[in-house]
Amino acid sequence: SDVYKRQTQSTWGKIEKHLQQQEMSRLSCQKLKAQNLSFLVKENTNKRSFCATQAALDEEPRFLEMVKAYFDEAAQYTAIRKDKLEVYKNCNTVLKVMLPLRRDNGSIEFIPAYRAQHKHHRLPVKGGTRYSPHVELQEVEALSALMTFKCAVVDLPYGGGKGGIRIDPRQYSAREIESLTRRYTLELAKKGFIGAAIDVLGPDMGTTPREMSIMKDTYQMFFGHLDINAVGCVTGKSISQGGISGRVESTGLGVFYGIRELLKDEGLMHRYGLTTGVNNKRVIIQGFGNVGYWAAKFLTESGAKLVGVIEYNGSIYNENGIDPNDLYRFLQDKKPIFAYQKAAEVYKDDTAFYKECDILIPAALERAVNKYNADRIQCKILAEAANGPTTIAGAEILTNKNVLILPDLLLNAGGVTVSYFEWLKNLEHVRPGRLIKKWEEKSKKNMLNVIYKLAGKQQGEFSEEEQAIIAGPSEKDIVYSGLEEVMSVAVEETKDTAKQLNITLKLAAWVNAINKIDRCYTEAGFTL
């Protein structure tokens, strides 16, 4: 399988190089690849991990087309005119720039970079920045659209945006990435694609708090003297650069809150053959990066059992459970997952993805569940932690199998919600809780003293338990509480719409988003 994969990738690499030399577009190359891959898939049906990915590209709509198809399906359940729906569906503004980079060896590369702003009904627009060799124009358009609808689902005052640079960050030095990041920031600034009131960037695949801090520093150094809120141009920054506690784990925490709230619904769980609550639920996660790890950590701390994990280089399974913290430390040493010796079963492909479980969480790339592999999935709940992980055909197959799909527009919203809290912190120039923490502690101490006095007891030093009760909220406490509130309200709204229209939760999230956007345009009028 590995030899086949390398040979196939090598062959297509040569074809793509030839097409580029002939000045054919990248899209044309992909179309040619799609026309011929069906033969490769038929001849190598046992190469499951590879074929599932390629079959999705071959037989199903591309990512942007998939997003628009979900929109069209949900739009049928609204009373909005078709001409207005076309406005809500399509992207407003896209930018492509070419970034020159002098490599450490003295050579010069010309690297494409993008930024899309899907809708401006609310400003600023908000969305991540992705460093990946797969970044291209249609991908950032699709992701920016998902950001618009995601923000609408959880009632954040943003339009959707997304951007990225087409590089594999593992192939570039820290100096080269910093140089690219600063140049990208300047290009965005010159075109009006960054700023606390215009377009707020954030982290995504391949980027970390370091890149976000570099972007903030670049923008602030060049434009900070004209903008007192310049630090709010980017979220996901290091704490020392204006970031907020809880941002790193926020997407995974949002996934946990969403799953937990939905598992409380007794009627819904009975319909899908499950008991209520997180306790003893068997969980399999695809993608054990930032989102997957934190979701696993919070779920297992609440009583769930992590039984399987799938990574790009293999998968593991253990019906007795896997310690997410131990596995995460192991993977931080850059070791392949199939070398993890504490798992009962290890594979060099994605076999664990098709093991029986209660909750399957795709937390990696888009279109992971598709027409090719959906029929082999053995879960009762599919919790979409990634952006667009399930194709329309894949969702239809799972729905017919009585699998409950928890939508990405809802579950994946934890990251942007806490980014919103960070943005507010930057605009207010004070961390959450700083002005009231000590006042709350004093108020609680006075209350305890009154209680002891009424009970006729002598108050001495407060115990550790009492001190914990008295302590005022930290920044992280406030962030966790705010995220829990946002996710809880959004879950209830999604369930209500699903029951009212007798549709899936996935469609209900889309319907809510479209209706909220329409309400904004209707009440304010179409922007000039």
What does this structure look like?
The protein is α/β, with parallel strands linked by helices. The protein has 19 helices and twelve strands. It has helices at 2-21, 26-43, 48-59, 63-75, 82-89, 137-153, 174-190, 209-223, 250-263, 266-271, 290-301, 324-331, 392-400, 408-411, 414-428, 437-454, 464-470, 475-501, 505-524, and strands at 93-102, 108-117, 125-131, 159-165, 199-203, 282-286, 305-311, 314-317, 345-347, 359-362, 381-383, 404-406. The strands form two sheets. A seven-stranded mixed beta sheet has the order 9-8-7-6-10-11-12, sandwiched between helices. β6, α11 (290-301) and β7 (305-311) form a beta-alpha-beta unit. α2 packs across α3 (48-59) and α4 (63-75) packs parallel to α6. The longest helix has 27 residues, at 475-501. The protein is globular. The chain starts with a helix and ends with a helix. Residues 3-8 and 17-51 have low confidence and may be disordered.
Please tally the β strands and state the result: 12
Q: How much helix, percentage-wise, in residues?
A: 40-55%
Low-confidence stretches: 3-8, 17-51
- Tell me the strand percentage band: 5-15%
Side by side, the strands of the main sheet go 9-8-7-6-10-11-12
N-to-C terminal Cα separation, in Å? 55 Å
Could you describe the largest sheet, including whether it forms a barrel? 7 strands, mixed
